[in-house]
Amino acid sequence: GVGRSHFAERLAIVADDEATARSALIAFVQGQDHPAVHQGTADPGQAPEVVFLFTGQGSQYPGMSQVLYEHSLVFREIIDRCDVLLGADEHGRTLKKVLQAGPAENAPIHETSWTQPALFAVEYALTQLWRAWGIEPAAVIGHSVGEYVAACVAGVFTLEEGLRLIQERGRLMQALP
Questions:
Q1: pLDDT, one tens digit for every residue, the chain (177 residues)
Q2: How many angstroms separate the CA atoms of 132 and 75, rounded?
Q3: How many angstroms separate the CA atoms of 107 and 109, rounded?
Q4: What does DSSP assign to residue 137?
Q5: DSSP 45
Q6: CB count, 10 Å around CB of 15?
Q7: Model pTM?
Q8: CA count, 13 A, side-chain hemisphere, 2
Q9: CB neighbours (10 Å) of residue 110?
């Protein structure tokens, strides 16, 4: 959205298939009404609202966020803080070790007890990075682990409380058969 012209007029086509999309576009071009065509005008000078969507378990992978950690001070400071808050597990693994682990099939990032806190920390750190760039969400939503991050970003609880909750949640889910 940064490098394109932002026109005031907006058009959206909601279609289940190509034929509906085609007929809607033809109707629009011919100035005819069509139920799939939705038109509007953007308010000039009003910045678009951004919504942050936080994902759940399943999006993790070994080495995720490593480049950001190496190159972004804001991101690194949050991950370091989360690493201290979470501490080491019974095997001596820490958040930073889990995030830095290589692409082994049995990488600790795939163990629910680490997946959930790791995703929480990465998503929260990304949010703080975007905020440092001046990007503030108008709303936040999340799925599963992402709901905890969204709640934390919205101010429902602190980072420390969110990490404690998600760490316990991951531990309990890991213990399930």
A1: 556 677 788 899 999 999 999 999 999 999 999 999 999 988 777 777 899 999 999 999 999 999 999 999 999 999 999 999 999 999 999 999 999 987 776 789 999 999 999 999 999 999 999 999 999 999 999 999 999 999 999 999 999 999 999 999 999 999 998
A2: 10
A3: 5
A4: -
A5: T
A6: 15
A7: 0.77
A8: 1
A9: 16
